[in-house]
Amino acid sequence: MKNKLIALLLICHVSVFAQHYILDSLAPTLGHLINFEANTFQFAEDSPSFQRFFGRLDSLYSGKPEKLHIFHIGGSHIQADIYSNKIRTYLQNMNDVSMAQRGFVFPYHLAHTNNPTNYRITAEKELWTGYRCSIRKDSIAWGMSGATAAFRAYSDTIYVRANYKNYTKNRYEFDRLRVFYNVEKDDYHLSVLDSTLLSSEMLNSDKMYREFRFNRKIDSLALRVHIKDSTTLNPEFALMGMEFMNDVPGVEYTSIGVNGASFFYYNRAAYFEEQLKLYKPDLFIISIGTNDAYMPESKFDALQFKEYYESFLQMVLRVNPACAILLTVPNDNYYRKRYKNPNTAKQEKIIIDLAKKYQMAVWDFYEVMGGLGSSNNWYKNKLMPRDRIHFTYLGYSIKADLFMNALIKAWAASTHRNEAKLLQHFKTLDE
């Protein structure tokens, strides 16, 4: 699968779609494309971990200062962070205590690939080389992000902005910054350019990060990376991610995506599990699978896909046994723009079986779209580009609203909230 996330994803880009609930206004013209009855979190009502998650979410909704952490991992759909950012914005704009820290991000710009628009990390781009676990020929140290930006020159300045084109009511601020990189190589100094901001710093060799602590909350800063010894042979600073941190309660929504990612390729990220141990997510959303099945039907190995998926599930549960895990079925797609892809239906069955086995929930977006061949109908209605794999900006916005509907339905059932009133609260957040 060719994984350029298409600047075309921004076809029909009107910024209002990033923050407004749009399903009601579009239902008369586009509602026939959507199987609303299938838009549920299947099995959530039978999952103890989901009951705990919804209890904590409901407490936060009631105004209590809870800390709630959501992880969302996937491929190009998540790297773009369009529909996942809209979900993040809904939850963080929920009330006055719902916006927590921005958390973990990756500087995709420095890896020469598309960066989400809601934060900005820049440097002299030509001095950096990008590596993704999803590119077979690439080989480097990868952590939780599955991507690495490598620097091998003399020095550079990295400009970090926690806010760019985001839609949260308040700005993200941080008083700590973690920078994940290959600390064991120790070829470079990493420092804060304005030393008056710094109160302390520490190094964690196991999890591979340096943490800077500041004497006040900030929303941007500059870092300097500088070689220690110019005679060093093959120097390398391998940047694996950053984390904007503070102690403010609320919802933290971490999205991790790599263009072209599959379970096989995430297995190449040697430090993934070790870095994941830093976190105790309340909800872990798995949106991997499109690339695992992007091939002719005769070449898709369903048993291998199940083994990879189950191994990943078990890894998440090793790190946090109490975590609620939402398995999402990939969207319908076309292989090479011409052929319907029946492999997704096989994935659907496997994902549902695994959810039952581990008492987790499923969001079956394949059925919500309409099943086999439905991506062509979404394409004809300008909700997907010609590849019929990705979505246009409007398509992603609809997907986010459908996700929120399913989340609210399961939440209301778990806590005995009035579903219509709960949904109306999120529909009117931007008014």
Description:
With 431 residues, the protein is an alpha+beta fold. It has two domains: 1-100 and 249-431, SGNH hydrolase (Rossmann fold, 3-Layer(aba) Sandwich), CATH 3.40.50; 103-248, Sandwich (Jelly Rolls). Helix content is 29%, strand content 25%. The chain contains twelve helices and 19 strands. The protein has helices at residues 23-30, 48-61, 76-80, 83-92, 263-266, 272-276, 302-319, 343-358, 365-369, 374-380, 393-415, 419-427, and strands spanning 41-42, 67-74, 103-105, 120-122, 128-132, 147-151, 155-161, 174-181, 188-192, 198-204, 209-218, 220-227, 237-245, 250-257, 283-287, 324-329, 334-335, 339-340, 361-364. The strands form four sheets. Strands 3, 5, 6, 8, 10, 11 and 13 form a seven-stranded antiparallel β-sheet that branches. A six-stranded mixed β-sheet has the order 1-19-16-15-2-14, with helices on both faces. It has a four-stranded antiparallel β-sheet with strand order 4-7-12-9, with no helix packed on it. α2 (48-61) crosses α11 (393-415) and α4 (83-92) packs across α11.
SSE arrangement:
Layout: H1 23-30, E1 41-42, H2 48-61, E2 67-74, H3 76-80, H4 83-92, E3 103-105, E4 120-122, E5 128-132, E6 147-151, E7 155-161, E8 174-181, E9 188-192, E10 198-204, E11 209-218, E12 220-227, E13 237-245, E14 250-257, H5 263-266, H6 272-276, E15 283-287, H7 302-319, E16 324-329, E17 334-335, E18 339-340, H8 343-358, E19 361-364, H9 365-369, H10 374-380, H11 393-415, H12 419-427
Parallel strand pairs: 2-14, 2-15, 15-16, 16-19
Antiparallel strand pairs: 1-19, 3-13, 4-7, 5-6, 6-13, 7-12, 8-11, 8-13, 9-12, 10-11, 17-18
Helix pairs in contact: 2-11, 4-11, 7-8
